[in-house]
Design goal:
heterodimer, A: Immunoglobulin-like, eight-stranded antiparallel β-sheet, 7 helices, B: mainly alpha, Rna Polymerase Sigma Factor, Chain: A, Arc Repressor Mutant, subunit A, 74% helix
């Protein structure tokens, strides 16, 4: 789809990513590179820290009366429901199950630990990359045509801010493709459009819902062309 | 003795509502002030500020003190929540006067107990004016380099250079004052 960006290509973009001025594709390129480049990752972290500190200059204003109680009410509503206490018998049964699972996990883990050193290093790099922008998830999904042919990839990033990036290569027709995000309740959210030229397009968009709430993303182009990416 | 910022965030991560109340009381003026600076409308700013505290409550477990102070972390959350709202509404409500105020050496002084703001203000004043404007527009209002180029009537490459050189210089000056 695209070449992996190198340090020379990424360095000029680091400040824009740190301030939030980068476009979606630029941000995606930088995050892809910093996943495996310590030097650029460190540089980005330093610039992001400076940009964040700049926000200290915003003048303070007392909020309207009732603000504090309104916030605390929202926090209370957001708190996970407290579990009901378990009976002693139920508690004992749960404990036995937990112990059995733990023993199995330890035995399995010892074997897996030896076999997955590379994966663990990659996972650590991935976590470190996400942490630069408060990220939680970075997910890539294939975009398929109605006949099952892969025509691109959609990247979903949950962080501060969250975004999605649509990359098409070999779309059936050129023109404007309307994008719709469908959540797990089946509600469709129109989320913008991208222009396809010569079958290709790369567009980034802000994402206003959690990645885990998204069921699929569909792209509808000229002449009834319908493309979809499913999260599961 | 007052609980530290880090202590309050740790309390929130553990679901302590008293820590959350103390945290809101300590930071509400800063959070609402930043939201108002970006969105420009008090009612919208109140919504944004509430959303910022809600996100802080949810993400408290992910706060890492090695990446910056609590104030910077919370204000970054606030900035992102405000920019989300601005982008959805497709309006750019920023006031040039607010921006110029941030760059004015005689501007409103930070609240007592916020010495870091003076340090950052001094570092910002050390930048060439056009670089400081570009960095502030990008950082506070989330303007892209293209949007800054259109607003300042300069080539895109110049806008990118101003953001890059300005932020690098700001980072270097802040690192010097940290030493």
């Amino acid at each position: 789809m695209t070449d992996r960006p190198d340090c020379e290509g990424v360095r000029p973009l680091l400040a824009e990513v740190a301030t939030g001025a980068a476009t979606g594709p630029e941000r995606a390129a930088v995050l892809l590179h910093t996943a495996t480049c310590d030097a650029c990752r460190t540089e980005l972290a330093g610039l992001a820290k400076a940009a964040d500190e700049l926000l200290l200059l915003a003048p303070a204003h007392e909020p309207p009366t009732g603000f504090e109680s309104a916030v605390l009410n929202r926090l209370h509503e957001a708190r996970p429901a407290r579990r009901t206490p378990m009976s002693k018998r139920s508690w004992t049964r749960h404990l036995a199950v937990v112990c059995a699972v733990l023993v199995a996990a330890v035995l399995t883990g010892a074997v897996v630990w030896q076999a997955t050193a590379t994966d663990r290093r990659l996972a650590a790099e991935h976590r470190q990359t996400l942490s630069v922008a408060g990220g939680r998830y970075l997910k890539a999904l294939p975009i398929l045509s109605s006949t099952g042919v892969r025509t691109g990839t959609v990247f979903l990033y949950q962080g501060e801010p969250s975004w999605l990036l649509v990359s098409l290569a070999g779309a059936p027709t050129d023109g404007e493709y309307r994008m719709t995000v469908i959540d797990r309740d089946g509600v469709a959210h129109p989320s913008g459009a991208c222009q396809v030229r010569h079958g290709d397009a790369v567009e980034g968009y802000p994402l206003y819902r959690a990645v885990t709430e998204i069921a699929r993303i569909q792209l509808d182009g000229p002449g009834g062309v319908h493309l979809e990416a499913h999260t599961a | 003795m007052a609980v530290t910022d880090e202590g309050l965030v740790a309390g929130m991560a553990a679901g302590d509502s008293q820590a959350a109340a103390a945290f809101v009381r300590r930071y509400q003026a800063r959070v609402f002030g930043l939201a108002l600076t970006i969105v420009g409308v008090p009612a919208t700013a109140e919504e944004v500020a509430q959303e910022a505290f809600l996100r802080a409550w949810r993400y408290a477990g992910g706060y890492d003190p090695r990446r910056g102070a609590v104030a910077s972390w919370l204000l970054t959350i606030t900035r992102n929540a405000a920019i989300d709202v601005v982008r959805v509404s497709h309006e750019r409500p920023y006031e040039p006067d607010t921006l110029l105020g941030l760059l004015d050496p005689q501007a409103e002084r930070p609240l007592e107990g916020w010495p870091d703001a003076d340090r950052v203000r001094t570092a910002l004043h050390g930048l060439p004016h056009e670089q400081a404007v570009a960095v502030v527009l990008a950082t506070f209002y989330g303007l892209t380099a293209r949007e800054i180029a259109e607003r300042e009537d300069i080539p895109l490459g110049t806008a990118k250079t101003r953001i890059r050189l300005g932020l690098i210089r700001l980072r270097d000056q802040l690192e010097v004052t940290d030493d």
